[in-house]
Design a protein that fits this description.
The complex is a heterodimer of chains A (389) and B (106). Chain A is α/β, with parallel strands linked by helices. Chain A contains nine helices and 21 strands. Chain A folds into three domains: 181 residues, FAD/NAD(P)-binding domain, CATH 3.50.50.60; 107 residues, FAD/NAD(P)-binding domain, CATH 3.50.50.60; 69 residues, Glutaredoxin, CATH 3.40.30.10. In chain A, helix 1 packs parallel to helix 2, helix 1 runs parallel beside helix 6 and helix 4 packs parallel to helix 5. Chain B is α/β, with parallel strands linked by helices and 106 residues long. Chain B has a single domain, classed as Glutaredoxin, CATH 3.40.30.10. In chain B, a hairpin with a 2-residue loop joins strand 4 and strand 5. Chain B is globular. The chains are: A alpha/beta (389), B alpha/beta (106).
């Protein structure tokens, strides 16, 4: 089994950005994705808000650049679906559907999210028969036709603009009051000025109907309670996203499917980080996913370095040594550093100083409850806790 | 895999005796591009037993509509020119492989 310093799951903007940083830190880096690298951003026709590209850049083109950048730094990209996790010899094991397993000293989870389904009658039955969640895939098939778009967020408004290049008429179903869109103002102004877009405000969608293919959408006016049947050739739904975390099977803690992390992007499991849309966060954009990836890779590298440093320190210290746990938030533990150093000198032993939180696994192994804590260690075993120094 | 379009589709697929698998795809469809290598591998494995072709919906919209393809990726399997199996949107190459095997033997 091949062992990597950092294995990244998901090759969207978060994962690929993490790969750039991980590989640049000279960490052996593998990035796995069940599909082509690029994630959701690659399905966007044009990115208009990624800094550094005035005039916009194609979503696929931008993601190809992310991928090329990660490869140039030395990351390996593989197409594989992750189906399970394990632990072996102090490392993580990642199992894939093809049967190949990879060893990982640390993991960055960046599986992203996928379009949310409304769950209304007809939606599943007509998937691929007029119901779509991907404008760049299917918009052309509705050239000259009438299309209903459900949603009023950034994706809905952006994609409606793209669809209107092909369709004659795009009927927008919006749950809010007239004029209220949940996208940014630039997008809203453009959309409201688009003559092909017809607005149906205060509407909820009841069902998608048809024969062999979609023929109509049934909506209800939330103000008047009147129902209406809108004849159309296709329906595009852009009603938010759901995180792709089912494959984790409880490997890390999730909250409504999303992964909570601290500001280092670390999950509740040591040396397992998360980046991008899958995180509990407010703004899910390519630029924030890229930021997450950079932070996750930086701390993965730093924590691996700390562990390596500890192993080296133990090796240097020999068979017997003192371990001193401190915490920057406990002033007393900082004040006592010189005393610990003098104690080690008096005993003729080396002293290894450890940040109690960063070396949580070491602290747990020696049953350290709080800093300051000074231990005498022989081999790998605690001999005594030194209380007076 | 044979490149199919509105001009050669009927003769190649509908007039064909036996099985013909057609992959409808688009160059801006990520799912289509991700699946293509797996379908190409299947085509190689079944070379000489099942015919394989692909239709790029860009430029062949009317053909796609006529065949009731309203979303991609879509894979249609024709037997003696008659559409006998449809896979659209959420399907795996393994499911397609099983269906082809079943139709070939049955």
């Amino acid at each position: 089994m091949e062992l990597f310093d950092i294995v990244i799951i998901g090759a969207g903007s978060g994962g690929l950005s993490a790969a750039v940083y991980a590989a640049r830190a000279k960490r052996s880096t593998l990035i796995l994705d069940r599909k082509r690298p690029g994630g959701q951003a690659a399905t966007t026709e044009k990115m208009e808000n990624y800094p550094g590209f005035p005039g916009g850049i194609g979503g696929r083109e931008l993601m190809d650049r992310f991928r090329d950048h990660a490869k140039e730094m030395g990351a390996r990209v593989e197409q594989a679906e992750v189906i399970g996790f394990g632990e072996e010899d102090g490392n993580y094991v990642i199992r894939t559907r093809k049967g190949v397993s990879y060893g990982a000293r640390s993991i960055i989870l960046a599986p992203g999210s996928e379009p949310r389904k409304l769950g209304i009658p007809g939606e599943a039955d007509y998937s691929g028969r007029g119901v779509s969640y991907c404008a760049t895939c299917d918009a052309e098939l509705f050239e000259g036709g009438t299309v209903v778009v459900i949603g009023s967020g950034e994706t809905a408004v952006e994609e409606a603009g793209y669809i209107s290049r092909f369709a004659d008429k795009v009927v927008m179903i919006v749950a809010h009051d007239e004029g209220i869109l949940t996208c940014n103002r630039t997008q809203a102004e453009t959309a409201l000025a688009n003559p092909k877009l017809i607005w149906k405000w205060n509407r909820s969608t009841l069902a998608i109907e048809g024969g062999e293919t979609v023929e109509a959408v049934r909506v209800r006016n939330l103000k008047t309670n009147m129902e209406e049947r809108i004849t159309c050739d296709g329906v595009f739904l852009f009603v938010g996203t759901v995180p792709q975390t089912a494959f984790l099977g409880g490997f890390v803690e999730t909250l409504k499917g999303y992964i909570p992390t601290d500001e280092k992007m670390e999950t509740n499991r040591q040396l397992v980080f998360a980046a991008g849309d899958v995180r509990v966060k407010n703004l899910r954009q390519v630029v924030t996913a890229a930021s997450d990836g950079a932070i996750a890779a930086y701390f993965a590298d730093r924590e691996l370095t700390e562990r390596e440093d500890f192993s080296k320190a133990v090796k240097r210290a020999g068979h017997n040594y003192l371990l001193y746990f401190y915490s920057p938030s406990v002033q007393q533990s900082l004040d006592l550093v010189p005393a610990a150093e003098r104690k080690a000198e008096a005993l003729g032993l080396s002293l290894i100083k450890l940040h109690a939180l960063k070396f949580g696994t070491v602290a747990a192994r020696y049953e350290v409850k709080a800093a300051p804590c000074l231990l005498r260690v022989e081999g790998e075993n605690k001999v005594e806790t030194i209380t007076e120094f | 895999m044979k490149e199919l379009d509105k001009d050669n589709f009927d003769e190649a697929v509908l007039a064909h005796k036996g099985l013909y698998l057609v992959d409808f795809w688009g160059s801006t469809c990520e799912e289509c591009l991700a699946m293509m290598p797996e379908i190409e591998a299947l085509a190689t494995a079944l070379d000489g037993q099942v015919e394989f072709g692909k239709v790029n919906i860009q430029g062949n919209r009317r053909l796609a509509m006529r065949e009731k393809v309203l979303g991609v990726p879509t894979i249609l399997i024709y037997k003696d020119g008659i559409k006998t199996a449809t896979f659209t949107k959420e399907f795996t190459a393994d499911e397609v492989r099983s269906a082809v095997e079943e139709l070939r033997l049955g």
